[in-house]
Amino acid sequence: MSTEKELKLRSGAVCELCSAKSILKVYKVPESPNVGLDSSIYICANCINQLEDSSTIDSNHWRCLNDSMWSQVPGVQVIAWRMLTRLRAEGWPQDLLEMLYLDEDTLSWAKATGEGLDENNSVRHMDSNGALLQTGDSVVLIKDLNVKGANFTAKRGTAVRNISLVHDNPEHIEGKVNGQHIVILTKFVRKS
Predict the structure, then answer these.
(1) What angle do CA 98, 100, 103 make, to 5 degrees?
(2) For the stretch 5-35, what's the b/e string if a residue is b when 16 or more beta carbons lie within 10 angstroms of its beta carbon?
(3) SS3 letters for 127-181?
(4) pLDDT in tens, the chain (192 residues)
(5) If 75 and its partner were Cys, which of 37, 41, 42, 50 is the partner (CB 3.0–4.6 Å)?
(6) Which residues pair with 153 in a beta bridge?
(7) Is residue 139 within 8 Å of 127, Cβ to Cβ?
């Protein structure tokens, strides 16, 4: 069965956030530590548009989270937390946030995009040119690097695809070079 069919079955063919019944799509929740069904939710085009373009947010639309935040689906919980955090200045979302309980792993996933962090306090990974790096980006090494413990040198110009960020250290990213999972200093890479 396809992912979309499984999500449609799980959701009862309604948006998992606002319960709309039309123009439903699979939405991959950003920064998911999971794959397949557990990394996606089934939501309407209106919710997707507001999630992806903050200039279109209608805070009254998100009052639906009063119900959907209680979902047992971690992806729905994550999106509920992110939107309530984004809208907390409205007043009513702060009350819902105080009631919302997320287990440790789900809360880490919810915070992985930096939502709710003060812009000055968030960990930002920058390449050698000052470009913002994000999970899943591809980078190129700008210097030959001796890889400790692996007995090889990662050559300048080597592409490292699908990087992951070290969330507590803005100077470190992780990726695979020559089949080895290694930690790389951001000052030695350029976003490609």
Answers:
(1) 120
(2) eebbeebeebbbbbebeeebebbebbbbeee
(3) CCCCCECCCCCCEEECCCEEECCCCEEECCCCEECCCEECCCCCCEEEEEECCEE
(4) 788 999 999 999 999 999 999 999 999 999 988 887 889 999 999 999 999 998 899 999 999 999 999 999 999 999 999 999 999 888 899 899 999 999 999 999 999 887 766 544 567 889 998 888 888 899 999 999 998 888 899 999 999 999 998 877 889 999 999 888 999 999 999 998
(5) 41
(6) 146
(7) yes
Q: Which two tokens stand for residue 5?
A: 């069919």
Give the distance from CA 152 to its chain's centroid: 33
Cβ pair 168, 123 in contact under 8 A: yes
The amino acid at residue 86 is R
**Structure token pair of residue 105:** 């792993």
DSSP 7-76: HHHHHTSS-TTT---SSEEEEEPTT-SS-GGGGEEEEEHHHHHHHH-GGG--TTGGGGHHHHTT-S-HHH
Tokens of 72: 């047992």
